[in-house]
Write a structure and sequence with these properties.
Helices cover 39% and strands 21% of the residues. It is of the alpha+beta class and 441 residues long. α2 (35-53) runs antiparallel to α3, α5 (162-185) crosses α7 and α5 crosses α8 (279-296). It is elongated, with a radius of gyration of 25 Å.
């Protein structure tokens, strides 16, 4: 029998140290057969603590005749919660692997004193297939035991735009992940990413649970017309989201805004790999955070006002945004057919005279506005979500595929058109999107 306790720092390098300590303990006990599983599992648990808890870490090892027992303690009271991720997501996978690969595992909450994630590795591991590993990429198998349950306040996020929030969630997940890595390389930047991530997860997991409940009840529908190739999931038409927020969690929602604002600034400056969020993506998380803070202060809920707002049609000038890419617009401005060009910030950078006339605009008045200015209000949320998904994942489900969709006329009427969207390279890795548009009426 061998037992030992080690203190680790809140750095990503602690995962490598934990692997070495586990291997040395197993080697000393002659348990070489447990090397691979134990190293993989402890690496996931310690990495998760370093990324999200951001506190000192305590590692306890117990090597016995029949099993290896490991406990990883951090001092962040936020317990892990089940999350659902798109297949393209780059974060949130590891703890499902812990559940699948270990003999048993769980989380023991210590209230304000943090938590302990524990697992055991034994001689009789179950053979795990690749499909089972993929299916395990969630938190469902991790038993959470809490000594203390926090007092909560019920908050209502009325008219939560589910499709838009799912896109915002994907953007936030990627940005939080990059910020953790950025802060590790720039320790002079003080960001409480752990608190921000906890606030983000509280809303996102509630949204996912509500969508799943609505789906089971048959109350979801596609966000785009039938036949559209976008993979956006079905969502409820109306979602008044009720979430339980710990009474002391309001500051973490203000922190979430600050952290993501910093991420947006770094993205604009080119210091992160992720593209800056579209204005609607920023606006919906600000609305959600401000609603939580406001309602916890005793104020009544205020519903999401929708994407049909004039402020989304014009280029946002009160926040940093990347400049328009350098690109030869004559292919558009000299065209005798309907074509419009937009950049990767979703801004119109050129439009042909025939198309502008068909939509009731002077070309000079439309250039500089955002693409949503010519998209009917009922389709704007899906458009923003789909384009944001494209920026985050590189997926391109509509490029090169003819589509029949309405376009918004300046007078508010809708014109049925046929689309063909193409992507053209621009300066410094930027992109321009050309939509060839032919009115059908």
């Amino acid at each position: 029998m061998f037992e030992a306790r080690h203190e680790l720092g809140a750095e990503l390098e602690s995962a490598g140290l934990a692997r070495r300590l586990v291997r040395e303990a197993l080697a000393a006990a002659g348990r070489d057969a447990w090397f691979d599983t134990a190293e993989l599992v402890v690496s996931e648990v310690v990495t998760n603590a370093a990324l999200h808890a951001r506190t000192p870490i305590e590692l306890w090892l117990g090597v016995y005749e029949e099993h290896l027992s490991v406990e990883v303690r951090d001092f962040n009271p936020m317990l892990p919660v089940p999350r659902d991720y798109d297949l393209e997501a780059t974060t949130g996978r590891g703890m499902g692997l812990v559940s699948t690969l270990s003999k048993s595992c769980g989380v023991h909450g210590l209230g304000e004193h943090g938590k302990v994630v524990w697992f055991r590795v034994a001689d009789d591991p179950t053979e795990v297939t690749a499909d089972q590993l993929i299916a395990a990429w969630d938190m469902d198998g991790l038993l959470v035991e809490a000594d203390e349950r926090p007092t909560v306040v019920e908050v209502v996020l009325a008219s939560m735009p589910a499709t838009l929030w799912l896109a915002a969630r994907q953007h936030h997940d990627a940005m939080v992940r990059e910020l953790v890595l950025y802060v590790a390389e720039h320790p002079q930047l003080s960001l409480d990413v752990a608190s921000a991530d906890a606030a983000r997860a509280l809303v996102s997991n509630a949204v996912m649970a509500a969508i799943e409940e609505a789906h089971v009840a048959g109350r979801t529908e596609p966000p785009l017309p039938e036949g559209h190739p976008s993979p956006l999931p079905w969502v409820p038409r109306q979602l008044d989201l009720q979430i339980e927020v710990p009474v002391d969690a309001a500051p973490s929602f203000a922190t979430l805004q600050d952290v993501l604002d910093t991420g947006e600034r770094l993205a604009v400056e080119g210091d992160l790999l992720i593209r800056p969020g579209l204005p609607e993506i920023v606006a919906v998380r600000d609305w959600a955070c401000e609603q939580v803070i406001s309602q916890m202060a005793g104020n009544v809920p205020r519903a999401w006002p929708g994407t049909d707002q004039d402020r989304f049609e014009v280029e946002v000038r009160d926040r940093a945004a990347p400049p328009a890419p350098q690109w030869d617009a004559t292919v558009v401005t000299g065209s005798s057919v309907g074509v419009i060009a937009a950049d990767d910030a979703n801004r119109i950078i050129a439009i042909s005279a025939p198309l502008a006339a068909a939509l009731g605009w002077d070309p000079d008045d439309l250039v500089g506005r955002r693409v949503v200015a010519v998209i009917p209000p009922a389709l704007r949320e899906a458009h923003v979500a789909g384009f944001s998904r494209h920026l985050n994942t590189g997926e391109a489900h509509v490029l090169g595929i003819p589509l029949d969709l309405p376009v918004l006329h300046k007078d508010g009427s809708e014109l049925r058109c046929r689309f063909l969207v193409e992507r053209a390279p621009a300066s410094a890795g930027r992109a321009v999107y050309l939509a060839w548009i032919y009115p059908l009426e």
